[in-house]
Amino acid sequence: MNQASHKACCTPNRGLIDRPDCAEQKTPTSSDGRPDLDTAVIPGGNAILGTRFPLIPNDGEESRKAPVLRQFKMTTTTITNAEYAAFVQSTGYVTDAERYGWSFVFWAQLPDSTSETQAVAGTEWWRKVEGANWRHVAGPGSEAGWQPDHPVVHVSWNDAKAFASWVGGRLPTEAEWEHAARGGLGDIPYPWGTREPDDETFQPCNIWQGRFPQDNLALDGHLTTAPAKSFEPNGFGLYNMVGNVWEWAAEPYKIPSLKRAVRQKLASMKGFKLLKGGSFLCHRTYCWRYRIAARSGASPDTSLAHQGFRVVFDQ
């Protein structure tokens, strides 16, 4: 596989618009209302971190030293709207998007009733939408789009960590996430193997088909998110490990490199947290990051219409 030309990821950050000071909320606890999460046992062993076949320069996709992992459990899907609703109902938790009063929404998702919105410079398809949050995924007037079995979105790293702590788990490390995504198949680009999704006959995951960001052909059946449990699971029984929504990982976004360009990039991303898996907005011609080794990052208070998470449990 040849290296792709480097393009910025399609994930803006809250700091690009405005960012009032706010302290991280304490994680609420409760003895009631915890959802019964479906999990899969992920066997331990020698993990693979990164790949021998990196595609995007300066993203840190190259093979790196990986730890020996102990067996753990991972939710078979990203956390759903219904599961997050149980958390909020039980604890009264308020997400970062709700506290700020806005979040990022992809332009094509906006209801016709949406008033003028502010675009993000350089990625104008992202709009700052007042009132957008996990309950109102495209802002006011989008209530009908809330579906209990779809991934919860507009959740920041802070929000994801709070939920994970509430259910007695945590966010996965990058090594755990990649190990789980590979499903026992080794250094492969996708959870199903090596075959590349296309705009014609093979759509094994929820990504963009067509000309980004103007025309989504939706050949995979979904213009935005798909149900969290959809498409074929990988060898460990995990659904949508690539595509659908980006997934928060536990660690900061770091790249082990001495390159000047990489150091400059990391300086502009100080404090950012790691994201894995790509989303329904990824396409090979722009954001070819729906691959297991691909990476992105965002500030821990950033929330978007294509970011979610799953939870791991130690055994």
From TrEMBL:
Coiled coil: none annotated. Gene3D superfamilies: paralog of FGE (formylglycine-generating enzyme) (3.90.1580.10). It comes from the Bacteria. Residues 39-312 form the Sulfatase-modifying factor enzyme-like domain. Residues 17-38 are annotated as: Disordered. It holds the Pfam family FGE-sulfatase. This is Formylglycine-generating enzyme family protein. It comes from Roseibium porphyridii.
